[in-house]
Sequence to fold (311 residues):
Amino acid sequence: MAQVGWYGLGSMGLAMASNLQRHLVARKALNLVYSNRTMSRGAPLQALGAIPEPSFETLFSQCGIIFTMVANDSVLQNLLSSAVSSGHSLKDKIFVDCSTVHPETVSKAVAQLKSKDASYVAAPVFGGKPIAVDGKLVFAIGGPKSATDVVKPLIQDVMGRRVIECGEDATKSSLLKIAGNIVTVNMMEAVGEAQVFAEKTGLGTGPMEELIGEAFGAVAGGYSKRLTTGAYAPPLDSRPGFGVSLAIKDAKHAMAMASDHGIQLPGLEIARLNMEAARAYGGECLDSSAMYGTLRQMAALGFGNEKSRKV
Ligand SMILES: NC(=O)c1ccc[n+]([C@@H]2O[C@H](COP(=O)([O-])OP(=O)(O)OC[C@H]3O[C@@H](n4cnc5c(N)ncnc54)[C@H](OP(=O)(O)O)[C@@H]3O)[C@@H](O)[C@H]2O)c1
Fold:
C-alpha cells in the first residue's frame, strides 16, 4: 500500500487519524505521516507510532494518499495550491478531503489536481467528535472510481461505519454534506428551543432530555447533552466539539446554494442568526449548539447555564 499522509488534527482530524494509524499498525503497513499547523496536537498520534512531519510539502511529496481534515475552504485551497505550485510531481497521488467545503471549492480542486495527473476524492463526514473517536462516522464519498476504490478500505470499519457512494462527481459529496447540515443545524436549534421552553415553564431539562433521546433518537439526544452538560460554552482553554464558526460556515454554504437555486431556508436562517449572535456575545470558543445561549438570553435566563463556562 502507498504511504498514507494526514493533514489536520482538530477535534475531528485527531480522532480520525488515530483510528487510521491503529488500522495501519494492525495491517503492518507503513505508519501514517502527519502534519498540522499546531504540531503539538499530534502527540497522541505520535504515541500510536505515527510520524510527525511539520512541512506539508515534505508530507505530500512522500505520500501516495493524502488525507486532509481542516477548518474551511480557504485552508484547503491554500494546501492544494501549495501542492500544485510546488514543482513536485503529483502524478497518481490521491488527495482525500474530509472537511466540509462548498462544491465550487471541490470543482476547483478536482481541476487543479487533474492538471497534474492526480486525483481528488471528496469524503466529508457526518457525526461529531465522540463518533469520530469510535470510528463510526458516516462518509459521503465521491471521485474517480480508480481512486475511491483505493481509499474506501482506509475508511470503512476504520474511521466510518458507513460509506455513502456519491459517484464520480466529487461535488455531489459536498452537496450531500451541506444538505445534511441543514438538518443538523435546524435540529440543534429545535433542541435548544425545546430545552429553554422546558426550563422556563418549570418542566425541567431532565425529563425533556429523556424524551428527546427516546423519541427523537441518539443524535438529537446528543445535542441535548451538549446543552445540559454545558458543552455549548466550553472552558476557554479547550476546543469546542464543533466550533460555532464552522457551523456558521456550513449554514452560509447552504444559504448561498439555496439562493442560487431559488430556494428559501427560513429555519436555517434563524439558526444562523442565533449562532452569529452567540459568537458576537461569547466569542469563538463556543460549540455550534451555542444558539442555545442566545435562546436563553431571549428568555431572560442568561447565556450560560450552571454547567457551562461563565459567559
Ligand atoms: N466537529 C464536528 O462535529 C464536525 C463534524 C462533521 C464535519 N466537520 C467539519 O470537519 C472540518 C474539521 O472540523 P473540526 O471540528 O475538526 O475543526 P477544528 O477542531 O476547528 O480543527 C480545524 C483544523 O484546521 C486547522 N486549521 C485551521 N485554520 C488553519 C489555517 N489557517 N492554516 C492551517 N490549518 C488551519 C487546525 O489547525 P490547528 O490545530 O493548528 O488549529 C485544525 O487542524 C470542518 O470543515 C468542519 O466543518 C466537523
